[in-house]
């Protein structure tokens, strides 16, 4: 598969699509992730909280792809934001996956009520200096949280992973991320396999390109400039989701897909200004 790359504000080149791994764990998860790597996935999204960093590490060894060719991303849990704890957690995260470094590491949620995320960010900066992480980013950070990190540490994240799908296109967040040179990454890019992939309007666009509803939605993400990380345990869906770089949606088709969006189109109500992980 010919997957284009994006360059982050720290110079790291990342593929335009990745594999979500939430709930892929144990032997079954290892098999599914190794198959995805062999099928062409290079960017793999995990988290300390998914309890599958071990399976990711096993899948890397089992796949035919060299470690250096892969970009492995994990995340720091909300209960580990305090400086020392954050650094130890990142070390534990590496041991779990049996890796020497993560390519990307994100603060999973800002947890603003707890309000320790600036300290977590300082630990992330130190972890990068120590060589634990090549590129540091955030997840579920609103513009105000990102502004504060920059104001208090002078360092902008490279990437912000947020809920983004046709019901919630995150136009404002994407604009604010872009102002800081931050790439937006889409979690639940297919609305978690919601009926959206079979919606009549989506299917009509898909048929016009000889593609599936899922492919058209993933293509929409990439044309917005966002990196989708669809999760699938099935090789057929994994391959289908990668095969989105040989067609282009028209401006009208992009608008039709975006028209599903609502001001608060979050599907599970996880608003980062109140949600505490
Ligand atoms: P998703 O939008 O990727 O949807 C996954 C579902 O869609 C699965 O049930 C899968 O079987 C189905 N699917 C996949 N490909 C399909 C296809 N081609 N056709 C039809 N159905 C298909 O949802 P997700 O798993 O919630 O999100 C993706 C990843 O994002 C997660 O695995 C995780 O890595 C990450 N994530 C991060 C956060 C965060 O707070 N940072 C939160 C949720 C998820």
From TrEMBL:
<dbReference type="InterPro" id="IPR020471">
    <property type="entry name" value="AKR"/>
</dbReference>
<dbReference type="InterPro" id="IPR036812">
    <property type="entry name" value="NAD(P)_OxRdtase_dom_sf"/>
</dbReference>
<keyword id="KW-0560">Oxidoreductase</keyword>
<keyword id="KW-0521">NADP</keyword>
<dbReference type="Pfam" id="PF00248">
    <property type="entry name" value="Aldo_ket_red"/>
</dbReference>
<feature type="domain" description="NADP-dependent oxidoreductase">
    <location>
        <begin position="200"/>
        <end position="260"/>
    </location>
</feature>
<protein>
    <submittedName>
        <fullName>2,5-diketo-D-gluconic acid reductase</fullName>
    </submittedName>
</protein>
<dbReference type="InterPro" id="IPR023210">
    <property type="entry name" value="NADP_OxRdtase_dom"/>
</dbReference>
<comment type="similarity">
    <text>Belongs to the aldo/keto reductase family.</text>
</comment>
<dbReference type="InterPro" id="IPR018170">
    <property type="entry name" value="Aldo/ket_reductase_CS"/>
</dbReference>
<feature type="domain" description="NADP-dependent oxidoreductase">
    <location>
        <begin position="17"/>
        <end position="193"/>
    </location>
</feature>
């Amino acid at each position: 598969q010919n997957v284009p790359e994006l360059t982050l504000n720290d110079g790291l080149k990342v593929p335009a699509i990745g594999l979500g791994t939430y709930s892929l764990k144990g032997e079954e998860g290892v098999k599914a992730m190794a198959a995805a790597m062999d099928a062409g996935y290079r960017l793999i999204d995990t988290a300390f909280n998914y309890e599958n960093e071990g399976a990711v590490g096993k899948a890397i060894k089992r796949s035919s792809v060299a470690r250096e060719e892969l970009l492995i991303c994990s995340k720091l849990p909300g209960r580990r934001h305090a400086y020392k704890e954050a650094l130890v957690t990142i070390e534990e995260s590496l041991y779990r996956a049996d890796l020497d470094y993560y390519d990307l590491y994100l603060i999973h949620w800002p947890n603003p009520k707890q309000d320790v995320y600036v300290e977590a960010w300082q630990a992330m900066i130190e972890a990068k200096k120590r060589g634990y992480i090549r590129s540091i980013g955030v997840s579920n950070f609103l513009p105000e949280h990102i502004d504060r990190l920059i104001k208090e540490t002078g360092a902008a994240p490279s990437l912000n992973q947020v809920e983004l799908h046709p019901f919630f296109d995150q136009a404002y967040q994407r604009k604010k991320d872009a102002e800081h040179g931050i790439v937006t990454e889409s979690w639940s890019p297919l609305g978690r396999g919601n009926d959206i992939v079979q919606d009549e309007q989506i299917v009509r666009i898909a048929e016009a390109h000889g593609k599936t509803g899922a492919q058209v939605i993933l293509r929409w993400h990439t044309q917005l400039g966002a990196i989708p990380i669809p999760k699938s345990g099935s090789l057929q869906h994994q391959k289908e989701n990668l095969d989105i770089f040989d067609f282009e949606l028209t401006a009208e088709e992009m608008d039709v897909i975006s028209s599903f969006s609502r001001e608060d189109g979050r599907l599970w109500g996880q608003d980062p200004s109140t949600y505490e992980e």
